[in-house]
Design brief:
CATH class of the largest domain in chain A: Alpha Beta
Oligomer: heterodimer
Number of helices of chain A: 11
Largest sheet of chain B: 2 strands, antiparallel
Order of helices and strands of chain A: HHEEHEEHEHHEEHHEHEEEEHHEEEEEEE
Radius of gyration of chain A: 25 Å
Shape of chain A: globular
Mean pLDDT of chain B: 92
Structural class of chain A: alpha/beta
Mean pLDDT of chain A: 83
Distance between the termini of chain B: 22 Å
Structural class of chain B: mainly alpha
Largest sheet of chain A: 9 strands, mixed
Largest interface: A-B, 80 and 86 residues
Low-confidence stretches of chain B: 1-29
Low-confidence stretches of chain A: 1-39, 198-206, 418-427
Chain lengths: ~500, ~550
């Protein structure tokens, strides 16, 4: 709407008009060059989702996955009795040396169901012991001597969606719960995610006005962009949230992580296509009063994770969602009397129905401590990121190296399949073939299959920016549909088939 | 002033700003040419309303139009002198407890020792945390023309302490007194004092840092942050490290031995249940061995470490702190040429006031580039709006009652990311662009629109009651020419948005104010003309403009 019209209506009614339409900004699709957003989109899984749980402050690895048969551990933690008694440790099937912190009951349950992958001794070369610097390194995916404040996932998204923000997706790429966006989602050029703490209000869009190139002008433009993004994305999130207002299970109360995860489960179930969520659980900087504090945090963590997993299972979404923990460092092996100081490598969890349960790597080597008592690293955290991008999102290496990670990293066998589909239940698999003839002139045939009886599919034709042009209802038993393309201009389009929790996409080429 | 005069300054325009991110804008930055030399008003950069407003907005919370005009009349030097004059703070509403020794554990049920038992003790601790936070908010809202509160917040944002960790509000008040005392004083003295401040000894575990004949419990928490966050920063401007991991450990050893003094309660049996307001040094808990800190070896104690640090890293410390000052008062992207000049003044004797005065007086500070280019923190935004628009009936200001209602403003600040006394972590608030996110901008808009429309109804003693009362008519009448709609419109725009509107913008704003009326029909004194509706119509439009997030 033009300013003039807006003001006239405002003057007439004496009130602000809702200007939020929830549409992405459109650009003439004929201009979308081959190899841009939609081409790359077809190259990754578009239905897998990751929830990163950041244990902020530096989680003590030794008291999380406890080497309860190692006398060296008990020696190092003598002062202040900062160890977990071997009788308290939760023992795990198939591992006679490492067990879980007693608060991690929920995690033990999931481990026994083979839904927890424990990656041992994760860190990076030349460990930095500052919270802030080390967090930057973990979130940026860079080497310890490289200063980069943009995040690994944002850089991956920027590679995947070079046209952003000229072309906005319908749903936000990534959502962080809380007030601030952490650098994981801040790219080199743009914020690639949004921070959300309140979903009750959609602001009005401010008027467009050219802006001078001064400091003040630059900041004003920044605020304008933030308001615009808020406007578009919150509309979609509210929409998804209002479709699914209840969880399938009861979550623990007085647990911030649990309430965050409960909200995420609802919006995913409500159909939001966001593929990355970040939640933060702070307080792991246990220099003092470690035993009590750590036990409380771990209880919150494990209880919330179990409830979330059960909820996803009840929704039938669990195969599409994994959780991953990160923390800027582990803690010193030796105690300081009431806690532990900043350390280095520590275990990391990837949790979900799509992971290979079990341990990856060896027990921490407590007889080869480095410097003042730091655990030697075995896995680089970027091996975990590479596995996530490669296996979970199905991205080829050239999509994330060097954009998101500085060089190739050897992947770890974290996820069940090194394939583009994580659907385990093959009976639910749908297929979508290339249309013919291609390019299409007056009409073209789109082949597909796998729509189960009792369900139906939706085939949609979209502009490359994701704007819906036409939808067709697909009944079980049908194997193809003839689509009229006379009304479409020459150019590239996307067609997708959705059924249940599955969605597949292909490119449609029209040439008159 | 007539509207035409406002358009005499031509502005440059750029077409496309999409693709802007938190860091990307550094690349298309150009330096502001004006330096640290005193600002001399000229025809193109006069001492005008915008500059008087700029000076007050950066140095205090929510100046009113009247105060801005007062500064305009007083002139730069007198205004800065007024800003840098300390003023007493009023803590009557939380006395006497805020100045007393904290009770740190419950008195046993069957005991007659004076103090609270069990649940009552827990409740009191929680209520006091709430009260001191609200007292702080209120203090900001009623503070006079002075930089004292902004400087105290500045130091709280660097020398951080979280009340959630410290738990007892008495120590937080004690620390507030310390920060206010030194806020424009000597930085090295401040560091010496904060190192052994009881709240800090709790927050960063200094009180646990000890080596006795039979235990070695050296705790590195404070030693690391003293260097990384409080003084020199991790690296210098060439990214060379300012200290080693060995320096952290050796400093931690030297800093050992400090703890919180015991209670001085005259009743000896009561002492174990209370703690002192001071700290003390216990030689037997101090690691008395030889330490090598920054290549100097000796039998160092805490003050020695600070002396060595300030001597060996004076360049880095002065630059680190002056960069923070620059970012707090001028712009979020530091200009190292200016900072270097500031640092040279600062490290002469570590006096804070001279360097701040030089900055505030400078041509650089008053350059048009920097006016309105900073983000309002939630405190500046919320408390600033309350103060500058004279919004009354703020629930949190009712200090006598603890209730959910009376935590409304505190809760709003929390959801916008700034909880006074509770920074997100030891690094303090990230500030700058992070204040305005997809999450917070909607909350900010909603608050302002609800206040203007008188829509904030909160249950109070069972009855739904309107809070945050805003009298738009009275507000408009505080401006010099409320009966000239063109001037009033321009004045309101300048006051709310901190920059002159373009001609196109101005006509849209004027239309919003007039709501179809003719200029000559304007009559603020005639209720039949519905001036309230018209003023609100403009204000509603102004508070959702991007510039309203900036100052």
């Amino acid at each position: 709407m033009k300013r003039r019209t807006f003001v006239q209506q405002l003057a007439a009614t004496g009130m602000l008009l809702p200007m939020s339409l929830g549409f992405p900004r459109l650009r003439a699709f004929a201009q979308a060059p081959p190899g841009s957003e939609f081409m790359k989109l077809a190259a990754i899984n578009n239905d897998t989702i990751t929830v990163i749980i950041r244990l902020a402050g530096g989680n003590d690895g030794l008291n999380t996955i406890v080497p309860y048969t190692n006398s060296e551990y008990y020696k190092l933690r003598t002062d202040g009795s900062l160890f977990i008694k071997d009788t308290d440790v939760l023992k795990l099937p198939g591992n006679a040396t490492m067990g879980l912190h007693p608060s991690l009951v929920g995690l033990k349950t999931l481990y026994e169901e083979q839904k927890v992958s424990i990656i041992q001794n994760v860190g990076y070369p030349n460990q930095n012991f500052s919270h802030f610097r080390s967090t930057d390194i973990w979130l940026s995916g860079t080497d310890a001597d490289v200063f980069d404040t943009s995040g690994w996932y944002a850089k991956f998204l920027e590679e995947l969606y070079p046209d952003y923000p000229d072309v906005l997706p319908t749903d936000p790429f990534a959502i962080e719960l809380g007030t601030f966006l952490s650098s994981t989602l801040i790219g080199k050029k743009n914020n690639m995610g949004i921070a959300i703490s309140n979903l009750n209000y959609v602001p009005d869009q401010p008027d467009e006005e050219p802006i001078p190139t001064t400091h003040v002008g630059i900041e004003e433009a920044y605020v304008r962009e933030v308001i615009k993004q808020t406007n578009i994305f919150t509309t979609r999130i509210i929409e998804a949230g209002s479709k699914q207002t209840k969880n399938m299970v009861t979550y623990p109360t007085n647990n911030v992580l649990a309430s965050g995860l409960a909200g995420i489960a609802r919006i995913i179930a409500g159909g939001l296509k966001t593929q990355m969520y970040i939640v933060n659980l702070g307080g792991y900087d246990t220099h003092s009063n470690q035993l009590t504090q750590h036990a409380n945090l771990h209880k919150q963590f494990a209880d919330a994770v179990l409830a979330f997993q059960r909820d996803l299972e009840a929704f039938g979404l669990d195969k599409r969602i994994c959780m991953m923990t990160i923390s800027e460092f582990g803690r010193r092996a030796i105690s300081n009397g009431s806690g532990t100081d900043h350390g280095s490598a520590a275990p990391l969890f990837v949790i979900g129905s799509g992971v290979n349960g079990g341990f990856i790597g060896s027990d921490p080597n407590l007889t080869a401590l480095q410097g003042p008592g730091n655990i030697p690293m075995e896995h680089d955290f970027r091996q975990v990121y590479a596995s996530l991008l490669g296996q979970w999102y199905g991205a080829s290496e050239q999509l994330y190296v060097p954009a998101a990670l500085p060089r190739p990293f050897q992947q770890l066998p974290i996820f069940k399949k090194l394939s583009t589909s994580v659907g385990d239940d093959t009976s639910q698999r749908i297929s979508l073939g290339m249309h013919y003839p291609s390019p299409a002139n007056e009409s073209t045939i789109i082949p597909f299959g796998g729509i189960l009886s009792g369900t139906e599919g939706i085939l949609g034709i979209y502009t490359p920016e994701g704007r819906l042009i036409t939808e067709y209802r697909i009944l079980p038993g049908t194997e193809s549909i003839e689509v009229d393309t006379r009304h479409l201009p020459s150019g590239l389009f996307v067609y997708s088939l959705r059924s249940g929790n599955f969605e597949l996409k292909q490119t449609l080429i029209v040439q008159h | 002033m007539k509207r035409r005069e406002f358009f005499s300054l031509k502005t440059k325009h750029e077409e496309d700003f999409s693709g802007l991110s938190q860091d990307a804008h550094i690349s298309h930055m150009k330096r502001v040419s004006a330096g640290l030399e005193p600002f001399i008003p000229s025809d193109s950069q006069p001492w005008d309303y915008e500059r008087a407003a700029h000076l007050l907005r950066r140095t205090m919370i929510g100046p009113t139009d009247k105060e801005i005009r007062q500064a305009l009349t007083l002139g730069i030097d007198q205004t800065i002198a007024m800003l840098c004059t300390p003023h007493p703070i009023d803590s009557k509403e939380i006395e006497p407890w805020c100045k007393s020794e904290p009770q740190i554990r419950a008195i046993p049920a069957n005991s007659d020792i004076p103090g609270l038992k069990d649940q009552d003790f827990q409740t009191q601790t929680i209520i006091r945390r709430e009260l001191i936070t609200r007292w702080y908010i209120k203090t900001l809202a009623i503070s006079p023309i002075s930089v004292q509160e902004k400087m105290t917040m500045f130091w709280s944002g660097i020398l951080t302490t979280e009340i959630d960790v410290v738990n007892f509000s008495e120590w937080m008040f004690n620390q507030q007194v310390l920060l206010r005392k030194h806020c424009l004083g000597n930085f090295k003295t401040l560091i010496n004092d904060i190192t052994i401040d009881p709240a800090m000894l709790i927050y960063l575990d200094g009180r646990l840092n000890q080596k006795t004949s039979n235990t070695n419990q050296i705790n590195e928490n404070y030693a690391r942050e003293l260097m990384e966050l409080f003084t020199c920063g991790p690296t210098d401007w060439n990214n060379a490290p300012n200290y080693t991991e060995d320096d952290v450990r050796e400093a931690a050893r030297a800093l050992s031995g400090w703890t919180i003094a015991g209670s001085t309660n005259p009743n000896a049996t009561a002492r174990p249940y209370y703690a002192g307001l001071k700290s003390n040094f216990i030689p037997s808990r101090w690691d008395s061995g030889t330490k090598t800190f920054m290549d100097v070896t000796g039998n160092w104690k805490a003050s020695d470490i600070i002396n060595i640090l300030f001597e060996k890293r004076s360049l880095q410390i002065s630059r680190f702190i002056c960069e923070r000052l620059y970012k707090a008062f001028v712009y979020d992207i530091p200009d190292r040429t200016i900072i270097d000049e500031m640092a040279a003044i600062f490290r002469k004797d570590w006096e804070i006031k001279p360097v701040l005065e030089t900055l505030l007086r400078s041509a650089h500070f008053f350059d048009s580039e920097n006016i309105g280019a900073m983000y309002k923190s939630p405190a500046s935004f919320l408390i600033g709006s309350i103060r500058s628009m004279n919004i009354s009936k703020v629930p949190d200001f009712r200090m006598d009652v603890s209730s959910v209602t009376n935590r409304d403003l505190s809760n709003r600040m929390t959801s916008m990311g700034e909880i006074l006394f509770n920074p997100p972590n030891v690094k303090g608030w990230p500030g700058g662009r992070s204040w305005v996110s997809t999450s917070t901008v909607s909350l900010r808009h909603k608050f302002m629109l609800d206040v203007i429309d008188g829509k904030i109804m909160i249950r109070d003693n069972g009855a739904l009651t309107q809070f945050y009362v805003f009298d738009s008519l009275a507000f408009a009448r505080t401006f010099p020419e409320p009966n000239d709609p063109e001037t009033l419109c321009m004045d309101l725009v300048l006051f709310m948005l901190n920059r002159k509107p373009t001609e196109k913008e101005y006509s849209a704003y004027l239309e919003a104010l007039l709501m179809g009326a003719k200029i000559y029909e304007w009559n603020i004194d005639d209720p039949a003309f519905k001036p309230v509706d018209r003023i609100k119509s403009l204000l509603r439009m102004l508070v959702v403009q991007p510039m309203h997030q900036l100052h």
